[in-house]
Write a structure and sequence with these properties.
219 residues; alpha/beta; Rossmann fold; 5-stranded parallel β-sheet; 3-stranded antiparallel β-sheet; 8 helices; 47% helix; globular; binds adenosine-5'-diphosphate; binds zinc ion
Length: 219
Amino acid sequence: MYLVLLGAPGSGKGTAGKVIAEDLELAHISTGDLFRENLKNETELGKEAKQYMDKGELVPDEVTIKMLKDRLAKADVKNGAVLDGFPRTEVQAKCLDDMLNEMGTKVDMALNIDVPFDEIVERIANRRSCRGCSEIYNVVFNPPKVEGICDKCGGELYQREDQKPEVVENRLKVYSQSAEELINHYEKAGVLYNAKAGDSVGKTSFDIAKEVEEYIKNN
Ligand code: ADP
Ligand code: ZN
């Protein structure tokens, strides 16, 4: 089973994706996390990606696609994967179709999480990431048990460079530019599933994960 997560940065797709991957025993592949790992380890790929990431721009396709291809070849992908942050453009979507086709499989579901932009800006301001394990928290909706400390690994929580307001604005702009073509791509393939995240008192990422798992079970 291959599940693609669509939705703006800050839509909660990362959190929903992790829950779904864990529950369905799929690999969780986040291209953002893969890039950040490369940054941390100061690899060539990391150095190349950093200049784009710091501005909230997309890393060039040839770099991103190669990285994903290598990741899909790892052993833990045997049951399939939840793809978080890939594809982000129609070119990437077509590439993914080809890669999966070669593996004798396909995208089974594209989950689109729709959240109003003004709410996203607020959510991202409240977001903290763990330096140790990259777990994501929201200081309002999903706070850690101890302020500033990761529940899972005890690592330090911090606000990512690309979560500054001006960078967030650019990431949302970049997202808007390709959102429609991606949604159309998966609608045409007949695998689009729209989840409405609602307002701040509405559904959480965990609710969305459960809704999707329920849907998958029944289809
Ligand atoms: P977000 O919080 O926007 O979901 P991610 O953690 O997914 O952010 O990605 C962080 C950054 O990594 C992006 O702003 C972009 O520079 C780069 N990136 C991640 N995935 C891709 C991709 N599929 N194509 C190009 N760049 C990517
Ligand atoms: Zn942690």
